[in-house]
TrEMBL record:
Belongs to the AfsR/DnrI/RedD regulatory family. It comes from the Bacteria. The lineage of its organism: Bacteria, Bacillati, Actinomycetota, Actinomycetes, Pseudonocardiales. It holds the Pfam family AAA_16. This is Tetratricopeptide repeat protein. InterPro entries: AAA+_ATPase (IPR003593), AAA_16 (IPR041664), AfsR-DnrI-RedD_regulator (IPR051677), BTAD (IPR005158), OmpR/PhoB-type_DNA-bd (IPR001867), P-loop_NTPase (IPR027417), Sig_transdc_resp-reg_C-effctor (IPR016032), TPR-like_helical_dom_sf (IPR011990). TPR repeats lie at residues 681-714. It comes from Saccharothrix syringae (Nocardiopsis syringae).
Length: 997
């Protein structure tokens, strides 16, 4: 828990301050603290608090009584600043991870991600850590009916889901004996939760306790009958049958995956049968062969529903040991009702899987392909490209190494790949009669007739098998009549499930959740979840870990029976817009965006914190990208630019530059076509920010300038001011100080003219402060940054507070006050670490290291720089990386490691030049000159120092110019020219005077 405050709600209320328990005895105080803790870091309105404390019977003096409770709670906590008063309510000022509810959610989310990535042991530990936070029923002693009604069911469901997922991971690790007692307890506590019974049956069966597994089924059958009057669901019945016949697939736990080896293969289809000849042929064609020089490409073709994807997955799993460097998979969605997956998205996913940091992934598709091929050189990997409709979808994804075969599935023969790229085609026919019967699990004439009626297609047979259940095949055939199995399965559903099935065809992305399905059908989420269970039981959708998807043939069938699809599509897209707005508000409340959509059903279940918002966006990223494409191409067009605008902050922070460029361009094209001035301005702003992030300052300035013009045309002063501020910062970083000052001062004037909140001034004041630092106006810099800090603290702007503190540390350093600088930087680092802002932490560490260098503490500076680089290891602002390299090189120079220092200064110089970062270039040139001087290379040192002087004079960077002149003086002195050295020092000293004096 650490030494900070800790608030526990998962059980009786628990409060610890500095590790010591703080009893909260009064019931109203417990309810108030629980309400604030559930939304730690966010404002809880007066109205909500009144409802939580008094329900429908508030006292006469509600506000006064509430203020008294807050005052007493502050006294109990011993730190009044922990509860901050705002104009709307109160806010508990602690990071969410210091509240057990939020830590549980975040830790379970990390466990889920580890499990999906194949890091099963790590996932098991994280689930155990998350579940260990529960000390009893949530809010056990909090006397608030309203809180319990709103929060306890939601928290209880999260607990049960975490238990289910934890058990799944333990079973996959082969720890069936360990989970049996856990599952005994869970089935006793939650006897109607069929998933726990299924897991218990599997665990018992794997422990060679088949009889006990069957007894567990009999017990749950009796419980469900007695309490609900129903029989076990289809999944439990199928599991019972598998245990009866000793299905070998139940005995083998999932193989653990090396976390460093990508394995993106979809799971094998349960009950895969036949295809022996095709399996052998494909295996021979893709098996590694040292004599090959060309990339083996196999195109698996066949009609829809013939089982191409299942066969490809089966072969890939069968051959996994032959490809120890990994298995990559992508669904190209060439035949889906929505848009196909863009090649750049596939390449981006592949490059990430291969360990490329997001920020180092090129935006250009050709550069992505080149990097992809170079990374695969010398590796033994298998690529599976599913549902390719044309050779152009495949060619950019082909490796250059013969040791990396490619297995492609398609409904077409892709003759271009065969003729030009040497692909080999394998035609997949329907199942044989014997294989069809094996898939049905039935025999006899009626079963043979059913197989024939299904066309011996695995998809149709699977749907028919689900409809058949344990019933008579003959009676099923009677019901079937002259219809096909898909129509019969559809007719067997309830009207609500039939309606949902058709409407789900409007989903543009690869999958969907119960919440998305609820919006499509305009029903409650709980009802949608039950309907999805019906559809999954009928094999009309596939469900994995709470997410559902269609076979593309079923998606097209659904589209053919959909009623009022356009209204459903609009509801779904509007839901995405509201959901993204909600997440953006949690993650980046101060980021300028288009006005939010009407509230409607904006609140997302289970998305109450920034961490939960990020997790939701991570899970839905592919769906949101598809929604943007679909809206741009088919309307409503505004959805495309609204979603692209709402995702800007998320894509920035996650460094998803490829998706960012694609979505912004789709939004731009749509806004331009519709002549929507606000939308076009927002997309120019979006692209300006993207190119700023990429270090392409010229492109960024062009887009920002166009956004300013459009906002001016529309009369939107506030938006014009915001973009002018960004434009000023970009010009500042590009070294155009005069234009930067004009933009920033204009921005400040526009903001004040528009009368917006002062919180919007922090970035501008900070930019002007940086400008003053660069020009040596330290007193003005301190005033500007102090004002930015005060506004940030007042409005709870953590990022602004961290930035201002860091820059005040830099000002104090340049003013010759190292201890004051270290104090500011320590505060900045603490806040950045608490908030999880890794780039901000790296910047504070780099600045601290620079102060340590001034104090002659080279080893300490090197350690701090190493820590800063570690914060940037997964990709970060390249300007910060440049500055860190300069500090590391300077520390190594001070420690006498001149060769290392020389190499690091060279790296910094190259990086600064590539991204267009003149201040970084100047610092690297000065450092490199110093190394060459110490090596006795005086001519080279002088040339480098003079280059630094010329650059800093041109840009007006007075402190950097002074450092360059001091180094040039040292070079002159080392070369024996004391007169030239004295002249340079005199020029350097004059730079200490205020500008213009």
């Amino acid at each position: 828990m650490g030494a900070g405050p800790w608030f526990g709600l998962l059980g009786p209320l628990e409060v610890r301050i500095q590790g010591q328990p703080v009893p909260v005895r009064a019931g109203k105080h417990r309810a108030l603290l629980a309400a604030l803790s559930l939304r730690a870091g966010r404002v809880v309105s007066i109205g909500e608090l009144v409802a939580f404390l008094w329900g429908d019977s508030p006292p006469a003096r509600t506000r006064g009584t509430l203020q008294t409770y807050v005052m007493r709670l502050r006294q109990l906590l011993g730190d009044p600043s922990l509860i901050r008063t705002t104009s709307d309510g109160y806010r508990l000022v602690v990071p969410p991870e210091q509240v057990d509810v939020h830590r549980f959610t975040a830790t379970a989310g990390r466990a889920r991600q580890a499990a999906r990535s194949g890091r099963l042991a790590e996932a098991a530990d994280l689930y155990a850590e998350a579940l260990g936070l529960w000390r009893g029923p949530a809010l056990a002693d909090v006397p608030s009916d309203s809180l319990r009604d709103h929060e306890v069911p939601r928290l209880a469901e999260r607990l049960l889901v975490a238990h289910e997922e934890h058990v799944d991971v333990e079973l996959a690790l082969g720890n069936h004996e360990r989970v049996i007692p856990v599952l005994r307890a869970l089935t006793a506590d939650y006897p109607l939760r069929e998933r726990f019974w299924a897991q218990l049956m599997v665990a018992l069966y794997r422990g060679s306790r088949q009889a006990e597994a069957l007894e567990a089924f009999r017990l749950v059958d009796r419980v469900l009958d007695e309490q609900l009057g129903v029989e076990p669901g289809a999944a439990l019945r199928e599991l019972h049958q598998a245990i009866l016949v000793g299905d070998p697939s139940l005995a083998a736990p999932v193989e653990q995956v090396d976390p460093d080896v990508p394995d993106q293969l979809p799971p094998e289809v349960p009950g895969f049968v036949g295809r022996a000849e095709a399996v052998d042929r494909i295996s021979r064609l893709v098996a590694p062969d040292g004599a090959r020089t060309a990339v083996p490409i196999v195109v698996l073709t066949g009609v829809p529903g013939v089982g191409k994807t299942a066969l490809a997955a089966h072969v890939a799993h069968r051959l996994r040991d032959r490809f120890p460097d990994g298995r990559l998979y992508a669904d190209l969605r060439g035949y889906a009702p929505g848009p196909p997956t863009p090649v750049v998205e596939v390449l981006t996913r592949f490059l990430r899987a291969l360990g490329v940091p997001p920020e180092q992934i090129p935006v250009d598709p050709d550069e992505q392909s080149t990097l992809f091929r170079s990374l695969l050189a010398g590796r033994r990997m298998l690529l599976v490209l599913d549902n390719a409709a044309a050779p152009d979808q495949v060619r950019p994804l082909l490796p250059g190494a013969a040791s990396c075969p490619v297995l492609v599935t398609s409904r077409d023969d892709l003759r271009g790949l065969i003729a030009v790229d040497g692909a080999r085609r394998v035609d997949l026919d329907v199942l044989s009669p014997a294989e069809s019967l094996a898939l049905l699990g039935r025999s006899g004439q009626a079963a043979e007739e059913l197989a024939r009626r299904c066309g011996h297609l695995p998809l149709a047979l699977d749907v028919a098998s689900a409809s058949l259940g344990g019933g008579s095949v003959a009676r099923y055939l009677e019901r079937l009549g002259d219809r096909d199995p898909l129509h019969l399965a559809l007719d067997a559903l309830t009207p609500a499930a039939r309606r949902l099935f058709g409407l789900l065809s409007v989903v543009p992305g690869p999958d969907f959740t119960p919440e998305a399905a609820a919006r499509v059908a305009d029903v409650p989420v709980a009802a949608a979840a039950l309907l999805l269970d019906q559809l999954a039981g009928a094999r009309l959708v596939r469900g994995v870990a709470g997410r559902y998807s269609f076979h593309d043939s079923l998606a097209r069938f659904a589209a053919s029976v959909a009623e009022d699809a356009e209204a459903a599509r609009t509801r779904l897209l509007e839901f995405y817009v509201r959901a993204v707005d909600h997440c953006a508000e949690l993650l980046y409340p101060d980021l300028m965006r288009l006005p939010s959509a009407p509230a409607g059903q904006a609140r997302l279940a289970g998305v109450e914190t920034a961490a939960q918002a990020r997790a939701w966006l991570d899970a839905e990223r592919a769906n949101l990208a598809a929604a943007i494409r679909a809206a741009a191409e088919h309307g409503p067009a505004a959805v495309s630019w609204r979603l692209a605008d709402g995702l800007r902050g998320y894509l920035w922070s996650g460094k998803h530059v490829t998706e960012w460029l694609l979505t912004a361009q789709y939004g731009m094209d749509a806004a331009h076509e519709q002549r929507d001035v606000a939308g076009e301005a927002a997309m120019h702003q979006n692209l300006g920010t993207l190119h700023w992030r990429l270090g392409d300052f010229a492109e960024s300035i062009e887009h920002y300038t166009r956004a300013v013009e459009l906002h001016r045309v529309s009369g939107d002063l506030e938006s014009e001011a915001g973009v002018r501020g960004n434009l000023g910062v970009v010009r500042l970083e590009a070294g155009d100080l005069a234009s930067a000052r004009n933009d920033l001062e204009t921005c400040l004037a526009l903001r004040r003219e528009a009368g917006g909140p002062r919180s919007g001034e922090t970035a501008v004041l900070t930019g002007l402060g940086v400008l003053a630092v660069e020009t040596g106006e330290l007193a003005e810099a301190a005033d500007l940054l102090g004002e930015a800090l005060a506004i940030s603290v007042e409005h709870g702007l953590r990022a602004g507070e961290i930035t201002a503190l860091t820059l005040l540390g830099v000002v104090a350093q340049q003013a010759g006050e190292p201890q004051r600088a270290l104090a500011h930087l320590a505060d900045a680092l603490r806040l950045a670490t608490e908030a999880g802002f890794r780039e901000a932490a790296a910047r504070a560490l780099e600045a601290t290291a620079s102060v340590r260098l001034d104090l002659g503490e080279h080893a300490e500076a090197l350690d701090l720089a190493d820590r800063a680089l570690a914060e940037l290891r997964e990709g970060g602002d390249q300007r910060i990386t440049t500055n860190v390299l300069v500090v590391m090189a300077s520390a190594n120079r001070g420690l006498g490691s001149l060769a290392v220092a020389d190499e690091q200064f060279q790296q910094a110089l190259t990086k600064a030049g590539r991204i267009g970062y003149p201040p970084g270039e100047a610092r690297a040139l000065v450092g490199l000159a110093g190394v060459r001087r110490l090596l006795g290379e005086h001519a080279e040192a002088r040339a480098l120092a003079e280059q630094a002087v010329a650059l800093t004079v041109r840009l007006g960077l007075r402190p950097a110019e002074r450092a360059a002149r001091v180094e040039l003086a040292a070079v002159h002195r080392a070369a024996g020219d004391d007169l030239a050295a004295a002249a340079e020092l005199d020029r350097a000293d004059r730079l200490l005077e205020p500008p213009g004096s």
